[in-house]
Amino acid sequence: QVQLVESGGGSVQAGGSLRLSCAVSRATVSTYCMGWFRQAPGKEREGVASLSGYGPTQYSDSVKGRFTISKDNAMNTVYLQMDSLKPEDTAMYYCAATATRWCGSELRDSDYMYWGQGTQVTVSS
């Protein structure tokens, strides 16, 4: 079974940066669609970014220009670099994957088959 393990979450002040990592087992990121989602207390899960296996990326409007999704094929790891963090970015962040090289043009959680357990990001004002 595909396994996704997130790391890199923590607490940071507004304007700071964090880099989340998603280590992938039993799947190859170069042939999978990878995504990042987040969920704040009392709110529904929200798409953040996606990375198709062959390169194209998608971002939600709320993070575009601040967050960057990337991968290291040799390490089979996906990253989410988060800069200029805002308090509204506070959430549990989840890595997700599905067995297609194209993620689609929308960030929909229903498109993803495999999910990590999440890593908490807290941004204070």
Task: Describe, in short, the structure shown.
This protein is an all-beta fold.
Description:
- This protein has 125 residues and is mainly β.
- The protein contains no helices and eleven strands.
- Strands 2, 4, 5, 6, 9, 10 and 11 form a seven-stranded mixed sheet that branches.
- The radius of gyration is 13 Å and the shape is globular.
List keywords for this structure.
single chain; 125 residues; mainly beta; four-stranded antiparallel beta sheet; 11 strands; 49% strand
Write the layout of secondary structure elements.
Elements: E1 3-7, E2 10-13, E3 18-25, E4 33-39, E5 46-51, E6 57-59, E7 67-72, E8 77-82, E9 91-98, E10 114-115, E11 119-124
Parallel strand pairs: 2-11
Antiparallel strand pairs: 1-3, 3-8, 4-5, 4-9, 5-6, 7-8, 9-10, 9-11
Query: What structural class results from the helix and strand content?
Result: mainly beta
Unreliable segments of 5+ consecutive residues = none
Radius of gyration over all CA atoms, rounded: 13 Å
User: Biggest sheet, in brief?
Assistant: 7 strands, mixed
Note the gap between the termini. Answer: 40 Å
Compute the number of strand runs.
Answer: 11
Average pLDDT, all residues = 96
Net shape:
globular
- Taken in chain order, the helices and strands follow as EEEEEEEEEEE
Beta content comes to over 45%
Helix content: under 10%
